[in-house]
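Notes for week 9. Today we move from apo structures to complexes. The key idea is that a small molecule is not decoration. When we ask for a structure prediction with zinc ion present, the ligand SMILES becomes part of the input, just like the chain. The input block below holds both the sequence and the ligand string. Read it once before you look at the output, and try to guess where the molecule might sit.
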Amino acid sequence: MRLQKIFVTIIFAFSLLVALNFGVQHVSGEQLPKIKTLIIDGENNHNWKATTPVLQKMLEESGRFTVDVITLNRDGKKYKVGAVTANLDSNLVGNEFSPVFDKFDLVISNFNNHKGGAWSEAVRTAFEKYVKDGHGFVVYHAADNAFREWKEYNKMIAFGGWGNRNESDGPYLYIDKDGKTIRDESKGSGGHHGSQWAFPITNQATEHPVMKGLPKVFMHSADELYERMRGPAENVTILATAYAKNTTKRHEPMLLAIEYGKGRVFHTTLGHDAQQLKSVAFIVTFLRGAEWAATGKVNIPVPDDMPNESEPVTRK
Ligand SMILES: [Zn+2]
């Protein structure tokens, strides 16, 4: 009898473990519907040819995303579709870039029109509607240098830099030494960075889905620290900051979450080149930010190699 009781207990414990394990697997990402993602690239003052494939691989290997890429070619002031990935309509190639956003849950921009071209009015309007209607957008590093003249784009990304931005584009946004969020209307250009260095990132929104479970402070490997960014800064949550100890002596926003209509925008200022995309601080925040932008939730777990405040961690 006693032995039987032990046996029943073991079976019960085993079943419980299986059930719990199933629960964990259920949120691992593999079983959730994939997030259909479009990366747009083709012009940037950064090495988009090197970074897009790394971003694509990172997203696909997480098990949570499928990724297509549209590469634009400038044709005077306009853009034509230069190339698309295999699953996309090859008839797009060679034609003027036209709205295609509705096929996707998420758009990621690795695009900076630094040579003065513009997306057509039809594309801009379609993209505004796409995000407003409740889709996701991720603005990655120098994509926040783009489109100074496109008002709604700047609302989506909350702030930007360079491209002659100044006080007419909106306030500087940062957190001061007392932890207070400052919208600083003073005059001056928008967007600066010093030499690259490995800096600590402070989690400023520990209850936000993107940041929940991440350390309070974690190291990022050597990268540009974007500072003095300015823009409309509406409906924005500062998710994370870095202290610009050598220059502004402000806690400069590194990661932002923005609400635009019913849509969500994740803004990462990090990731200058392919090397910086090996930083676990970048990888984890980028994947979780992308998932949040597309779905409003985050299931991608914080990995075991997440750095803390002591030193950055990079992957091969
Ligand atoms: Zn850069």
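The chain is about 25% helix and 25% strand.
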